[in-house]
Write the structure tokens for this entry.
Amino acid sequence: MNDEQTFVIALLNPKTQNEAFKKLLTQFKKPLYAHIRNIVLNHDDTDDVLQNTFVKVFQNLKNFKGESKLFSWIYRIATNEAITFINNKAKRNGQTNEDFQQKQIENIKADVYFDGNEMQLKLQKAVHSLPNKQQLVFKMKYYEDLKYEAISEILGTSVGGLKASYFHAVKKIEEYVTKN
Amino acid sequence: MKEFKLDQTPKINSGFKVPDNYFDNLEIKIINQLAKDNVKEISIFGKSYLWLSGIAAVMIIGFSISVLFKNAEQTSFTNEDYLFTHENLNTEDFAEFLSENDLQMLEKKLIK
């Protein structure tokens, strides 16, 4: 039995569940924070979504069948929570998802939890001029350093499709930064 | 204009910052949230109804026994009498006979 299977069993066993879940929290809190923050952009919203994500993970452990890796399953929950959150917020403001995020980025300098230099700010603006899917792939590959195989398991897109998305994203970003 | 090339530029970070101690406090927050959720699930349904039915059952049995005995004292107790007295009675009828005190006790167990 490999490490992941042992861990999943520990998570499913009521006797060892609490201890195992604390381990999961410790392991995933920072990478999931970064992943969610890249999508919802502000800290407070990220905090909400992150907590909801972990609660959902805990409540749905009994439904985890091991068909995918635990890592991918958890990231998928986080991604869905974050995107749903953004969609709802955008809807409440009568905007599309992309318009909403672009608005957020225009105001990002005012965010007390953003201390990016000019280059970092420019890149954020460039990224948020991209269509949704390309944005997400770029963020996961470039900002989060996830491998294509991992991204593929999380998003359900083929590695080839992801590479194409990333390639186009980079081209557009380079054009944007060059021009601006 | 110099062309910008991402792969020829040193890694650019997102620029996002996290409040101090955020990650330390996060685990406690989540564990407390989960503990609260678990407690809520138990007290709304399930066990509290079990209490109620348990108490009600005991009271109904206790009451019907005392009624039985009372009838035996007052009249000549026959099988027909017993059947007549007890055949169509249901829990509402017994509830009527529960004193205000009994009802309050029952309610207390429910809310707990």
In short: The helical segments of chain B are 22-44, 47-74, 79-86, 91-97, 100-111.
